[in-house]
Design a protein that fits this description.
This protein is mostly beta strands. The protein has one domain: Porin (Beta Barrel). The protein contains one helix and nine strands. The N and C termini lie far apart (51 Å).
Length: 184
C-alpha cells in the first residue's frame, strides 16, 4: 500500500472511531447559532475584549462552524499605537458525548484575521491582513434541552505574525442537537 492510501485508511478509521463515541446514530442534522464574549492576547500587545457571532451545522457530534469576531481597541508595547482585531473563522468541530450535561470540543479551522493599528497622536491607521490555522479546545455545559454554554481556548498561528494569538471565549448557543439524557 502506498503512503497516501495508508494515511487515508488511518484517517478514515479514526473518524469512524470518533463518531462511535459521539452522538452517532442518535442525532440528525441540526443548525445552531450563538454569541460570545472573550479576550484575545496577540504578541507585544495588551489583552483586548472580543465579541463574536457563530453559526453551525451539526450531525452526530461533528459540525461545520463559522465564527465572526471583533474586538475593542487596546494598547500595544508602543505607547502611541492601539490595535483592534477582527476576522472570520471557519472550521470542523467535534463534540464528545454528553455526560451529566458536560461535553468537550476540539476544532480545527482556517482563520482570516485583520489587525487594525491606530496611531493615537496622528490618527493614522493601517491594517495587517493575515490568515492561518486555528486550533480550539473547549468544555461545555448544557443549560436547557437545546441551549448550552461553551468555554473555548483558541490558538491562532500563521506565518505573518511573529507569535501566535491566544483567544479565550465564553459562548451561549441556541439550537443544535437536543439533549437526550435526563430532563431539566
Amino acid at each position: 500500500m502506498k503512503f497516501k492510501q495508508s494515511l487515508l485508511l488511518i484517517l478514515s478509521i479514526s473518524a469512524m472511531l470518533l463518531s462511535a463515541n459521539s452522538y452517532a446514530g442518535r442525532q440528525g442534522i441540526n443548525f445552531y447559532y450563538g454569541v460570545g464574549l472573550g479576550a484575545a492576547a496577540p504578541a507585544d500587545s495588551d489583552v483586548t475584549a472580543t465579541g463574536n457571532l457563530m453559526i453551525g451545522l451539526e450531525e452526530d457530534g461533528w459540525s461545520i462552524e463559522a465564527v465572526g469576531f471583533g474586538s475593542i481597541e487596546s494598547g500595544t508595547d508602543i505607547s502611541n499605537v492601539d490595535y483592534s482585531l477582527s476576522g472570520v473563522d471557519v472550521g470542523l468541530a467535534y463534540r464528545t458525548i454528553e455526560k451529566n450535561g458536560v461535553y468537550y470540543k476540539i476544532k480545527f479551522s482556517s482563520t482570516d484575521l485583520d489587525i487594525d493599528f491606530k496611531n493615537t497622536v496622528t490618527n493614522a491607521t493601517s491594517t495587517a491582513e493575515t490568515d492561518g490555522n486555528s486550533y480550539t479546545f473547549g468544555m461545555a455545559w448544557r443549560t436547557s434541552r437545546e441551549n448550552r454554554v461553551e468555554l473555548d481556548y483558541t490558538y491562532h498561528n500563521n506565518d505573518d505574525l511573529s507569535d501566535p494569538v491566544h483567544l479565550i471565549t465564553l459562548s451561549y448557543l441556541w439550537g443544535g442537537a437536543p439533549y437526550l439524557g435526563k430532563s431539566f
